[in-house]
Amino acid sequence: METVIIVGHRGSSRIAPENTLPAFDLAWREGADAIEGDFHLTKDHYIVCIHDHDTRRVSGKKLVIRDSTLDELRELDVGVFRGQQYQGTFIPTIGEVFSTIPAHKMIYIEIKSDGAIVPKLFKEVNGSGLQPEQIVVISLNHKVILECKLRGLQSKAFWVCEFQKGRSGEITPSLETVLKTLEQVKADGLSSNWGVITESFAKGVMAQGYEFHVWDVDDLEMARQYMAWGARSITTNVPRYMVRNLKG
Fold this sequence. Notes:
Elements: E1 5-9, H1 21-29, E2 34-41, E3 47-49, H2 56-59, H3 70-74, H4 94-98, E4 106-111, H5 118-126, E5 135-139, H6 142-150, E6 156-161, E7 164-165, E8 171-172, H7 175-184, E9 189-193, H8 199-206, E10 211-215, H9 220-229, E11 233-236, H10 239-247
Parallel strand pairs: 1-2, 1-11, 2-4, 4-5, 5-6, 6-9, 9-10, 10-11
Antiparallel strand pairs: 2-3, 7-8
């Protein structure tokens, strides 16, 4: 069995401000194998690391990312809400996030924009000095995955799917729908939210040659369960805790 990959969700985001250089640096110090960050395209065509489509939740001031320039976004403090030690923390560019990645470590790039981000993403990746195996592209937007693959992405790409369970226990989307989507967009695997899909569902995905990944798991027993099912990576807000208990 391959060793599970521990991914710091938005860095070590339980402690440090999510999607910031302090959060990513902390995740590396805590022993994470990879970091996961969320990326949007700005008005002036920079790729920046932030989860939401606007800045209100992390800064207290609302700027819509796609309607704002990098300089405008840089004026915001996205760290002070997590403590005075993080005062002055700014929204990083993807290049700045790349620069934190140690040799042999990885980044999961979650694309939050539409396909317009892909050409710029390829330029950033090609100029990063990272190897293809250090990069994974993920997105809820399956069309972005297809766009990356059609442009010749050399790294793996996973479709992110947030599953729901109905009152009668049915899981949506269905396994059939998921497999059809994965095939259509040429994805290498599925990234699932935790706590919904079953072991048979996960193994049904893997039986067709796709990797199975799960986010964002902070409970140790749940993590061990997904490892037993064959998950290749576990994305977590507490990378230090997971590294110590799953790899110690």
